[in-house]
Amino acid sequence: MKELIVATKNEGKVREFRQMFANYNISVKSLLDFEEEMEDIEETGTTFSENATIKAEAVSQQFQLPVVADDSGLVIDALDGAPGVYSARYAGEEKDDAKNLQKVMQELQGVPREERTARFVCAVAVARPGEETFVKKGYCEGSIANEPSGANGFGYDPIFIPKGSKRTMAEYSAEEKNSISHRHHAIQQIEEWLKHQS
After folding, report:
1. Which end of the chain is less packed: N or C, by CB atoms within 10 Å?
2. The CATH number of the domain where 94 resides is what?
3. Count: domains in the chain
4. Distance CA 7, CA 35 (A)
5. Closest by CA position to 193, among listed 50, 66, 9
6. Cα separation of 107 and 115, whole Å?
7. How many CA atoms, within 13 angstroms, populate the side-chain half-sphere of residue 135?
8. Domain that residue 100 falls in
9. pTM for the whole thing?
């Protein structure tokens, strides 16, 4: 494997994957490199693994190259696993971080701290032409704060407190966050797989 595509237009994600694959002399392209050729992929899965697989296989089929795709989100126990796979559009079809946070805060009103357990989940799928797709998952356990805090990160970071911490993810530096994130843990598992490919 000399080249692969990361099925995202998120530059932060691409950077993370690019750093890892560089260790194995694999060059990485993203959907930003194929802007005009790529149709929107409908994520119709009911789990993070299904959505990651749908994305990876659709892109791999189109370009006949190995593809890495991820799907991730926030799972809150007191909300029966919501927002889950609908994390990005929890408050409506338009992706709006502020409205999503507001909705979660409203739904958790009155829920005591010990019942606000939650985790970020990331599923990373690797699809290769003519081979079976596989998925690795990573988790970051924690709880939901009583109010948003911090200006770093994105999405639900201002209300997520990683286990063992008193700060929200949005109060972490990028380096600190990347060392404990759900995506980091999923990527580590992909790296384990890569080590056995050579």
Report:
1. C
2. 3.90.950.10
3. 1
4. 11
5. 66
6. 13
7. 20
8. 3-195
9. 0.88
Integer Cα distance of 71 and 53 in angstroms = 9
Distance of CA 31 to the CA centre of its chain: 16
pLDDT of residue 194: 80
Q: Tell me the per-residue pLDDT of 104-150, one tens digit each, with 9 for 90 and over.
A: 999 999 999 999 999 999 999 999 999 999 999 999 999 999 999 99
pLDDT of 197 > 80? The answer is no
Contacts of 68 (CB under 8 A, 6+ apart): 4, 5, 6, 7, 17, 56, 124, 125, 126, 190
Partners of residue 72 on adjacent β-strands: 122
pLDDT digits (tens, 9 = 90+) for 50-82: 999 999 999 999 999 999 999 999 999 999 999
Residues catalogued as catalytic = 71
